[in-house]
């Protein structure tokens, strides 16, 4: 065979290998491209991204044209090598020639291109979409026939080729995506995004101000005591009740009280009248923070009273409490913890027993267990299974704790050290 006649088969062989490389690399690129980035670019008007998104909407057809092209290119390469070998060297060299072709196709038609496609998916996938679009149209009848046969075979095993795999992410998967964003998202923003996802896991009774810490006005108190409470109030809204927080009359807004005081017209009846202008807003203790945040927005409320299954008030939760779960504390310690935690010179903390475990963990970076009792007092009582005496020492989650004060059958004050403190 002359050089001239040999050049055409070699060119055909080279072209077949190039086609194999194209179909292999673009198949990997299109199937491994980031669907969310692709959707974002398509929404921005990128033509290649839009075409790629349309192609991936029917992966059965796309894979059909890819495999069709790849198969034809492989068959063409094998036929050319067989023909040239028979004419030049004879049939005894067919095995060696086909072995060499297999190695060439494996290296330059499969492994190499697929690796490149996986590493540079977007760079290959978007331009390739312009080629696959007309190819899909030209081979539509044959691809339709192949896809139909495949669909029938898949239905026999209970799989529908018409259903595209869902690319929606669960909350846990979204956490992984945020964590892997690295430098693309500032650390503070990553923490906020994860905190938003965590709102679905946290209930209002885990972050509420306990009932015994809720500031309010008992209308059965002496008027002088009521006036002292009003003057010293640190909140803009106070519950007004008759003897017990479960018998709430309404919620008093301090702006209205200030106007009445300025006119010198405030008395007990006037106080009740102002309180009844705003009914208390009650929520069940099992409500998640996600649900409650939406409820606050829909009801135009900023705080709610948490009740148990018997309707008894257990505590108070505000919209600020929920926002602090997302963005972190507005100060070095949350409001409840500021009042109830005091750092000591020896590295320990004097903590009120009513402090919530979540607030301590979030503010001080600790890992006290949160699966059971919500307060430090409850955690200690559950661990000891008895009401301790002052001076009792114990260790919880590696934290040495000393009970300092007991009152009303509850732990009022403790001293607690970080885990690194030796007992």
Overall average pLDDT = 85
Terminal CA distance: 93 Å
Classification by helices and strands: alpha+beta
Largest sheet, if any?
5 strands, antiparallel
- Into which percentage range does the β-strand content fall? 5-15%
Describe this structure in words.
With 423 residues, this protein is of the alpha+beta class. It folds into four domains: 3-156, no CATH class; 170-199, no CATH class; 204-327, CBS-domain; 335-416, 2-Layer Sandwich (Uridine Diphospho-n-acetylenolpyruvylglucosamine Reductase, domain 3), CATH 3.30.465.10. Helices cover 56% and strands 13% of the residues. It has 18 helices and twelve strands. A hairpin with a 5-residue loop joins strand 8 (341-343) and strand 9 (349-352). Helix 1 (3-32) runs parallel beside helix 5 and helix 3 (47-57) packs across helix 6. The longest helix is centred in the N-terminal third of the chain and has 30 residues, at 3-32. The protein is elongated and about 115 Å long.
How is this fold's topology laid out?
Elements: H1 3-32, H2 35-43, H3 47-57, H4 59-88, H5 94-119, H6 121-138, H7 140-156, H8 171-180, H9 187-198, H10 204-207, E1 209-210, E2 217-218, H11 223-232, E3 237-241, E4 248-253, H12 254-263, H13 268-275, E5 282-284, H14 289-299, E6 303-307, E7 313-318, H15 319-327, H16 335-340, E8 341-343, E9 349-352, H17 357-364, H18 376-384, E10 393-396, E11 399-407, E12 410-416
Parallel strand pairs: 2-3, 5-6
Antiparallel strand pairs: 1-7, 3-4, 6-7, 8-9, 9-12, 10-11, 11-12
């Amino acid at each position: 065979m002359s050089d001239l006649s040999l050049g055409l088969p070699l060119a055909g062989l080279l072209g077949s290998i190039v086609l194999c490389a194209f179909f292999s690399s673009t198949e990997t690129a299109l199937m491994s491209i980031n669907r969310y980035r692709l959707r974002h670019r398509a929404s921005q008007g990128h033509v290649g991204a839009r075409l790629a998104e349309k192609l991936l909407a029917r992966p059965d057809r796309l894979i059909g044209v890819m495999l069709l092209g790849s198969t034809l290119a492989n068959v063409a390469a094998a036929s050319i090598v067989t023909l040239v070998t028979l004419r030049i060297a004879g049939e005894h060299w067919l095995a060696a020639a086909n072995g060499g072709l297999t190695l060439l196709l494996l290296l330059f038609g499969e492994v190499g291109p697929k690796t490149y496609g996986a590493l540079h998916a977007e760079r290959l996938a978007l331009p390739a979409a312009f080629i696959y679009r007309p190819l899909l149209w030209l081979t539509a009848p044959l691809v339709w026939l192949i896809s139909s046969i495949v669909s029938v075979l898949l239905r026999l095993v209970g799989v529908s080729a018409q259903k595209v795999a869902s690319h929606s992410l669960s909350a846990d998967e979204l956490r992984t995506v945020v964590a892997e964003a690295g430098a693309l998202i500032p650390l503070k923003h990553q923490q906020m995004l994860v905190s938003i996802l965590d709102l679905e896991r946290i209930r209002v009774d885990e972050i509420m101000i306990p009932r015994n810490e809720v500031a309010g006005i008992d209308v059965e108190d002496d008027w002088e005591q009521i006036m002292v409470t009003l003057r010293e109030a640190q909140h803009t809204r106070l519950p007004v009740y008759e003897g017990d927080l479960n018998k709430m009359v309404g919620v008093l807004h301090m702006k209205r009280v200030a106007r009445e005081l300025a006119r010198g017209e405030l008395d007990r009846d006037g106080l009740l009248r102002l309180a009844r202008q705003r009914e208390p807003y009650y929520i069940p203790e099992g409500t998640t923070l996600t649900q409650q945040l939406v409820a606050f927005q829909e009801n135009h409320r900023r705080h709610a009273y948490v009740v148990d299954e018997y309707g008894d008030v257990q505590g108070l939760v505000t919209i600020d409490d929920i926002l602090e779960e997302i963005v972190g504390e507005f100060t070095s310690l949350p409001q409840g913890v500021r009042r109830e935690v005091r750092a000591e010179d020896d590295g320990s903390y004097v903590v009120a027993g009513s402090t919530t475990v979540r607030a301590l963990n979030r503010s001080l970076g600790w890992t006290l267990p949160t699966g059971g009792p919500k307060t430090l007092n409850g955690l200690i009582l559950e661990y000891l299974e008895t009401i301790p005496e002052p001076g009792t020492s114990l260790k919880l989650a590696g934290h040495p704790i000393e009970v300092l004060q007991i009152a009303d059958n509850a732990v009022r004050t403790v001293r607690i050290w970080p885990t690194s403190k030796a007992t």
